[in-house]
Amino acid sequence: MSRTGGRVRHPMPYERKKKWFGFLFVVPWLIGFAYFFLVPFVSSFFYSLYEKVSPAQGGMQFLGFAGIRRYVEALSADTPFILQLTFTLQRMVYQVPLVLVFSIFLAVILNTRFRGRLLARGIFFLPVIIASGIVINILRGDTVASDMMAGERGSALFQGIQFEVLLLQVGVPVDVTTWLMQVINGIFELVWKSGVQTLLMLSGLQSIPHTVYEAADIEGATAWETFWKITMPMASPHIILCAFYTIVDISTDYSNLIILRIRDIARNLDLAYASVLSIIWFAIIMALVGLVFLLTRRMVYYNDDRG
Amino acid sequence: MDLQLIRQRLQALDPRERISIWTMKKISRGAVGFIRAYLILCLSFVVLYPLFYMLSISFRPNTQIMDPSVIWIPRTFSIQSIVEVMELIEFPKALSNSVFLSLAATLLQLMTCSLAGYGFARFRFRGRNLLFGFVLLTILVPMQSVAIPMYSQIRFFDYFFVGRLIGLFTGEALSTSLYNTPWALFLPALLGNGLRGGLYIYVFRQSYMGMPKDLEDAAYIDGCGFIQTYTRIIMPLARAPMLVVFILSLIWYWNDVFLNNLFYSTAETLSMAVDGLAVKMALSHDFYQIFAYQQAGCLVLIAPVLLMYLFLQKYFIRSVDRTGLK
Fold first, then answer.
1. A207 neighbourhood in chain B, CB within 8 Å
2. Could you give the CA distance from residue B174 to residue B92 in angstroms, rounded to a whole number?
3. Residue B160 with chain A: CB contacts under 8 Å
4. CB B145 within 8 A of CB A281
5. Which residue of chain B is at minimal alpha-carbon distance from A234?
6. How far apart are CA A181 and CA B220, in angstroms?
7. What is the mean pLDDT for each group of 10 consecutive residues in chain B (326 residues)?
8. Which of the listed CATH numbers 3.40.50.1580, 1.10.1760.20, 1.10.3720.10, 3.40.630.30 matches domain A69-296?
9. Assigned domain for B71 exists
10. Predicted ipTM of the assembly
């Protein structure tokens, strides 16, 4: 760069400029992230290391450094928490695959051509409107409604108690039977939880090129083979995305026992302990997501060079 | 389908077998159609059940609420519960509050998230992958677990650390309270960290990545700057993801009570009012009425979003196809 002629402005090279502008596009989010996420996240971790944290004039007041003592306490002595944890994780273990299977199934049906397809698709998104926020809480808390729903399930779907008795008499173990009944009775929740997932899956199925199906058809593949050999691998990135979404959705749900408990503790102003529990819960979610990621990494097929 | 193949085969067969192939094809197609229609009908019922239930309870006169002989359709229709609930929650005020807060927050969020998504999709800058990892982190962390420190950020808002910095010199940190002002909801939304902001950034990034690059390159060659390219070329092309994110964000803000309770508890939005219905009616001993009011309240709450969805549904579903979330 020569400075002989006073101010000669050299334009920035295109590539470097592009880098800066890319950063510029992200900056508003980055500020928000630092201020409204990173700081709270880190301070939540700090809270958890103290005996007592209380709001005071102009900030927070910390009393008595506890280190990881309260973590140990939560995982060894807090019986309700441990019970809630195992219960929630147990539910997750069967709910996540069920939601996935259900949303794939629904998306495949909705992806075929039939009359009223648009209407059907519109209907299956409704759970997002109806079942989010407080409406679902009221519906759940409404004892009469849940009784009626239970009655509906029983009479319409599997004859309720008789079905359980039948299973037991056939010789299915008690554990399996109660579990199965839980799943069957949870069908409402299942359908309501898979609104967004069905949508994601549907858009995933739409992105599979037609030519692949046509080729398979000419080669004489049956619908069954086409589903397992083309649809599933091609949709696998979306399935994983749905799996992550479902895990996060279930674990951050307002009706989640652990979330409820954290809320209650926070309401009683034991902020330090609420932070301990939420950090533990977050670590578990991260571990779950990481596990799913590692387990499925080999199975996911990416149809592009982005990797 | 392989119609030609079938035709060839048919010519080789004798008439009786020809009929059997055709009928088999027809029967199997009919069976598939029937099973599909049956499944969709059944599942639609499950999905629509709460809506039917709300409608059924809300339009009953008080005397028929617990009447076991009334199944779904009440003997006489009455809008008494709905009218009373609307009075109780001060519907016009609550509606305008809800519309203002959720619409503004959604639009702010839409702006920043689409910008950030574009930045992540198209530009290679240092630390991009790390930052995108942070986006995913914000999706993974339950909001409840950072709620308290986030409240303190809002309650003692220090102008993005500037106040704290001044505090180092003057001894007293400068801060103001955004609590119970609309800014408590708008500011995080404006900075892309509102309700489920991370998810929207993800959606935008994916759909921008699926767009052809050629148009942008052409724009650059013609002398468009990066920002101009974004506003003139990209934004008009990104109508599909914009609509998807707009609807999702609006619905989630509309139904949300968590953020409202935390940051702006004096705002009487529809969702807050319906949520507070139980408390308001705690003194009432008329169980039927509480019951009817809650259902009617839910109906009143979701009716505006539902109507909006009905109008936009066709475009929305098409947009989902086109967004091509990858």
1. 210, 324-326
2. 38
3. 31, 35
4. yes
5. B326
6. 61
7. 68 63 78 87 84 86 75 83 89 93 95 93 89 89 82 83 80 80 91 89 87 84 86 87 91 88 86 83 75 86 91 81 59
8. 1.10.3720.10
9. no
10. 0.84
